[in-house]
Amino acid sequence: MQLMAYTADHHAKLDVSEAIPEGCTLTWIEDASHLSSNLAWKQTRILILVASDWPMSDIESLMDNFAPRRVILVDLTPEAHWHGIHQNQLVRKTPSLV
């Protein structure tokens, strides 16, 4: 399975790389603005984002551009600013069944 990951926190790269299951291919995104030329972006099924600050426009942009595919967001901010952000966006966009 093709995975991609992005973080501005270089210390988190090793931890994420070590957590990837055997048989998966991990590609690191160095700059969120260069994705249009990346063939792996189109083949990637899961995007791993490591947020160490709030707000982070690169992470918000990557989440928007990767949708509707799966995103794993690792929130390293002390106050857990990112907790539930993506889920709340999906809830707002989904029409009510009631």
Structure description:
The chain is built from four helices and four strands, in the order E-H-E-H-E-H-E-H. With 98 residues, it is an alpha/beta fold. A four-stranded parallel sheet has the order 2-1-3-4, with helices on both faces. The radius of gyration is 14 Å and the shape is globular. The N and C termini lie far apart (37 Å).
Structural topology:
Layout: E1 2-7, H1 10-19, E2 25-28, H2 39-43, E3 46-51, H3 57-66, E4 70-75, H4 85-93
Parallel strand pairs: 1-2, 1-3, 3-4
Task: Give a nutshell description of this structure.
The chain has helices at 10-19, 39-43, 57-66, 85-93, and strands spanning 2-7, 25-28, 46-51, 70-75. The chain is α/β, with parallel strands linked by helices and 98 residues long. Helix 1 links the parallel strand 1 and strand 2.
Overview features:
98 residues; 4 helices; disordered C terminus; 4-stranded parallel beta sheet; alpha/beta; 22% strand
- Read across the widest sheet, the strand sequence of neighbours is 2-1-3-4
| Average pLDDT taken over every residue | 78
Q: What's the alpha carbon Rg, rounded to whole Å? A: 14 Å
Helix content: 25-40%
Question: Count of DSSP E strands?
Answer: 4
Oligomer: single chain
Distance between the termini: 37 Å
- Shape field: globular
